[in-house]
Amino acid sequence: MKHYQPEFKADAVALYRSRPGVTIAQIAADLGVNSETLRNWIRIDDRRRGTAPAAKPTARPAAGDPADPAEAVAAENAALRRRVRELEEERDILRKAARYIAGETRW
Questions:
Q1: Residue 45 in contact with residue 56, Cβ under 8 Å?
Q2: Chain-centre distance of CA 106, in angstroms?
Q3: Residues 93, 11: contact at Cβ < 8 Å?
Q4: Residue 97 sits in a domain of what CATH number?
Q5: Cα–Cα distance, 82 to 18 (Å, whole number)
Q6: Over the stretch 88-98, which tens digit does the pLDDT of each residue have?
Q7: Which of 12, 27, 49, 72 has the most Cβ atoms closer than 10 angstroms to its Cβ?
Q8: pTM score
């Protein structure tokens, strides 16, 4: 049985939550972990947060466009900032994974 660092687990859960529309199986395959392992990490995080199981954020609010153009710009800026944050998290996770894999391949 493999043991993963808590940081890796947290990063994997964050990656799943930051990518709406992507399945657990896809994220698990990208990270090289079993999909059930990732699913368990997500469940544990849900319990820790006190949220409903499989609560995944949506990419955009369900409501229509704001009536005020300034609100629309503010909403778009907020969405873009979230996306930048998600991409930075994904980049950091990939860097950590690359370092982890590189460390395992050394004799």
A1: no
A2: 29
A3: yes
A4: 1.10.10
A5: 9
A6: 888 988 888 88
A7: 12
A8: 0.50
